[in-house]
Amino acid sequence: MTQIIHRSCPTCEASCGLTMEVDRERGEVLSVKGDPDDVRSQGYVCAKSQAFHHIYRDPERLRRPVKRVGGDWEEVSWDEALDAVAARLAAVRDEYGKDAIAMYYGNPNGHNFHTQIYTQLFIGMLDTERFFSAGSVDQQPKNLSSELLYGNAWLFPVPDLSRTDFFVCMGGNPMVSQGSLLGAPDVGREFAALRERGGHMVVIDPRRTETAAVADQHLFIRPGTDALLLMAWVHELFARQAVNIGALADRVEGLAALEELARPFTPEAVAPRTGVPAAALRALVDGFAGAQRPVLYGRIGLCTQAFGTLASWLVDVVNLLQGRLDEEGGAMFARPATGQNESRGEPQPLQHGRWKSRARGFPEYMSMLPASCMAEEMECTGADAVRALITVAGNPVLSVPNGKRIDAAMDNVEFKVALDIYINETTRHADYILPSTTQLEHSNYDFLFAAFAQRNFARYSPQVFAPEPGAKHQHEIFVELLARMNGMSASDLDAMMLDGLVDSVLPALEGVGKEQVLAASAHHEGGERLLDILLRVGPYGDRFAAGGEGLNLDKVKAQPHGVDLGPLQPGVLPQMLNTQDGCIRLLHPLLEADIARLAAALDEPAPVLVLIGRRHIRDMNSWLHNLKNYARGADRCTLYMHPDDAAGRGIADGDVAEISSAVGRLAVPVEYHDGMMPGVVSLPHGFGHRYPGTRQSTASGQLPGVSANDLVDDDALDLPSGTSVVNGVAVEVHAQP
Question: Taking CA atoms, which of 144, 245, 363, 577 is between 20 and 30 Å from 90?
Answer without folding.
Answer: 363
